[in-house]
Amino acid sequence: MKEIWIITKRELQAYFDSLMAYILLILFLGFSGFFTWIYGSDIFFVKQANLQVFFNIAYWTLFFFIPALTMRLLSEENRSGTIELLLTKPISEWQVIVAKFLAALLLIVAALFLTLPYYITVSSLGNIDNGAVFSGYLALILVSGMYIAIGLFTSSVTNNQIVAYLLALSIGIFFQIIFQMLSTNLTGILGGITDYLSINSHFDSMTRGVIDSRDLVYFFSVMLLGLVFSESMLMKKRSV
Amino acid sequence: MDIVIENMTKTYGRQKAVDNISLQVKTGEVLGFLGPNGAGKTTTMKAITSFLIPDSGKIFIGNISVNDNPQEAKKNIGYLPENNPLYEDMPVIDYLQFCAGIEGVAKDKINDKVREVIQTCGITREKHKKISELSKGYKQRVGLAQALIHDPEVLILDEPTTGLDPNQIVEIRELIKKIGKEKTVILSSHILAEVEATCDRIMIINKGKIVADGTAEELRGQAQGSEMLKVTIEDGSLDEIFKGLQLLNTVELVDFADKSTQTFQVKSKPGQSSRREVFNLCVKNGWTLTQLTFVETRLEDIFRELTLEN
Ligand SMILES: Nc1ncnc2c1ncn2[C@@H]1O[C@H](COP(=O)(O)OP(=O)(O)OP(=O)(O)O)[C@@H](O)[C@H]1O
Ligand SMILES: [Mg+2]
């Protein structure tokens, strides 16, 4: 556990040293702020004090940003050979994967934390459903975790950051758009499966304040799969 | 802690990088790996540090099996990988603290330990620089410092002195020798003199197989089948002397070493000596013998003999 935290700290430090963290925070707050408050501007017209608009904007912003955050995590270690250094220390592949996952997740949580003024402003407009706000934020964190795990995996399969980014985005598009499109066109079991695989239904119900175990199972399963696949990619390199 | 390898084989695709190697290195021993490029030195070292999983065979660090209990085995190993990968974006001191942390050095000891290795490896003046700003030699020292940070029982150093200046090479050799008194060290190198100066035992690997194993003296003894002399003879014509030497019945081969000074290399037949014969030849012809010395078989020659393709 201690080792995990040491690696996580190093990754966070690297995010801030490379300015990646600042760029992400500023762009994320800028984007979500701009679209939430100015461009759509419906937050004042929906006559409802909720953060639905913000959640949707953040949902899309994270979709594009997270792969940029994760693309470096393992590809760079593989490219420069530092992975050999790391894995010959008394730590396991799993610890390395979890540590890097946590670093990216913590950065996202920090970014989300900084949007708290949105909440405060909106709640001053009228009665706000605090439960929905809580489960909405939770949904954003879970979606982030899911995309971080996917990004970590794509970062483990290539030595090239750009390839890792594009690969993560391509996998993400399935969960973000394609499965949903398929589910509206398919019927029966296939329709049900694709509907379950699409993030939308899970995310929507959570932002409306419903926390269902089905949704939690969904998010945690994809996360776990991404991490396990990343781990096995690291292991595979050792027995070429 | 001893290092034991039993029948290890590692194949990349169809190519056998390491072919059924077995070896043992005892505590207090420094073993030098020699071998041409692609011999399998790095592959063997990667397997010892559990970074590579061999196809077959067993590796033990002390009593710990690297295969069954890699985490425990790795705690006892300090490793300097071949091209010395480092987190270039970190300052030296942060990097070493990071390494100490994951090696499990106690929190209150980390600063002392880092100070200690910085001093041993001579990077005091560079410690606040970013690693990417260091010269190659200093990077190499950081790599070495990182391997030493947790006082490991076993040190695996893949070409530890590449990029170091002559002063530092001597210092690092001394350091390795000192460490080697109590610890178990394997290092690889292409500098034969270095291996001879630093290591208690030399192992020559070729095409994944061990082709020689022993002290420098033992290797010389094995290779030195026939006597080799260097003789300088004056007051006679070059051709006549050459013919005279060639005709001696103990001599197998004569070569010119330096025509201007009339110096020859004389190789005797296996198990025979030509020293008396050379002297008597000179007396008989009235030549003056001004030099007669043994040519010691150099490690280079042994190396070439064992590893060169025919
Ligand atoms: N990742 C790899 N994939 C395929 N083949 C490899 C790989 N690593 C090493 N080899 C091959 O295995 C053989 C042994 O390589 P190794 O790196 O162990 O040699 P070495 O003795 O360290 O050589 P050098 O003195 O050049 O460092 C070489 O023929 C090499 O081409
Ligand atoms: Mg090598």
Summary tags:
heterodimer; A: 240 residues; mainly alpha; B: 310 residues; alpha/beta; Rossmann fold; Alpha-Beta Plaits; six-stranded mixed β-sheet; four-stranded antiparallel β-sheet; 11 helices; 14 strands; 36% helix; 28% strand; binds adenosine-5'-triphosphate; binds magnesium ion
What would your notes on this structure say?
- Chain A is mainly alpha-helical and 240 residues long.
- Chain A has one domain (2-239).
- Chain A has eleven helices and no strands.
- In chain A, α2 packs antiparallel against α3, α3 (52-80) packs antiparallel against α5 and α3 (52-80) crosses α8 (161-185).
- Chain A starts with a helix and ends with a helix.
- Chain B is of the alpha/beta class.
- Chain B folds into two domains: 3-222, Rossmann fold (3-Layer(aba) Sandwich), CATH 3.40.50; 226-296, 2-Layer Sandwich (Alpha-Beta Plaits), CATH 3.30.70.100.
- Helices cover 36% and strands 28% of the residues of chain B.
- Chain B contains eleven helices and 14 strands.
- Chain B has a six-stranded mixed sheet, sandwiched between helices. A four-stranded antiparallel sheet of chain B has the order 2-1-4-5.
- In chain B, β4 (56-61) and β5 form a beta hairpin.
- The radius of gyration of chain B is 25 Å and the shape is elongated.
- The two termini of chain B are 39 Å apart.
- Classes of the chains: A mainly alpha (240), B alpha/beta (310).
- Chain A binds chain B through residues 2-3, 6-7, 10, 13-14, 17-18, 80-82, 84-92, 238-240, and chain B through 12, 46, 49-53, 71-72, 74-75, 77, 79, 81, 83, 85-90, 94, 98-99, 101-104, 146.
- The structure holds adenosine-5'-triphosphate (ATP) and magnesium ion (MG).
- The site of magnesium ion has 4 residues of chain B, from α1.
- Residues 12, 15, 17, 35, 37-43 of chain B line the site of adenosine-5'-triphosphate.
